[in-house]
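During the first year of the project, the team set up a workflow for recording each protein of interest as an amino acid sequence followed immediately by a discrete structure-token representation. This format lets reviewers and collaborators read both layers of information side by side without switching files. As required by the reporting guidelines, we include two representative entries from the current panel. The first entry is reproduced here exactly as it appears in our internal archive.
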Amino acid sequence: MNLSHKTLSLNLNERSMEKPIKIQVAKQLDGYVFGISLNTRNLIKKNIPDACPANRIFVSYDNQSDFKTFYPKLETYILSALLGVENIQTIIRTNTIEFIDNETQEPLHILTNE
């Protein structure tokens, strides 16, 4: 997938800028499920034709404390795989990304360029 000269910004209009990209996070017994809504998938496909966004990605762990230690490092890989793009940094620079607890709907983590 070659996205070198394509715009990876998801904000085609001002309304897109108002809403962050929301990643739903659901804790399981042995890991976490990260997912995006159908609207987010469609927005990504519309703005990045070569993107192949996934509905959900499950990340398993053997030891929860290890997972929490490595989570910040995994975040970029999870986003790249979930949103289906190689250069996730461009999206992070131009969009706010919120990781939302699926149960409480509270933000767990927010990525922004500010």
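The second entry, processed by the same pipeline in the following quarter, appears below.
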Amino acid sequence: MLQTRLFSKADVFKLFLVSAFPVHVWAILTLFKWSSSLTLSLSVLEIVSVTAYVLVFALLESLVIFIPLSLLAYLFFSGVTGAHPISNGAAIILPVSISAAAIHLYRFLEIKAVDFPQWASLWAAGALAAVAFFIYWLRNNDKVDRALRSLVDRLAVLSLIYLLLDLISGFVVLLRNLAAS
């Protein structure tokens, strides 16, 4: 469906890896936050199972983020900027994913200075402003296009490691559920 002259299969896969990066970083940080209580109350196999479930859920969450945002980049912004489709997708996916993680920081850090609706609105507006800024910048500067593509290539390599961990985690979850039945 997305394979046209604008998006190749490799471009689609790279955009998926870019959308997976912030989600997996957030999932791993959350695991680290709770690691002390997990190690005190669970066995090693139970910790492996919890980690597997978290990573499988992060993979599913990455798909939920990737599909609508990449379609948005494909349908609306591919002709606007004249930039490479990877840059258009990254200019949308990265700010939205980072602001979603920042919205979750409210409960993670137990912030009391503002209430949650104000915090979420602030970061959602920041994401929209960042997307608009990136789209404007992409339209007027080829260096930004090259820099975003370079960033995507670097994030894709790291996200491949996360994807490998997701596949192993999916296998662990499958084995655990088959053993339970």
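For the second entry, the following points were noted during internal review. Residues 142-180 form the longest helix (39 residues). The two ends are 38 Å apart (CA to CA). Both points are flagged for discussion at the upcoming steering committee meeting.
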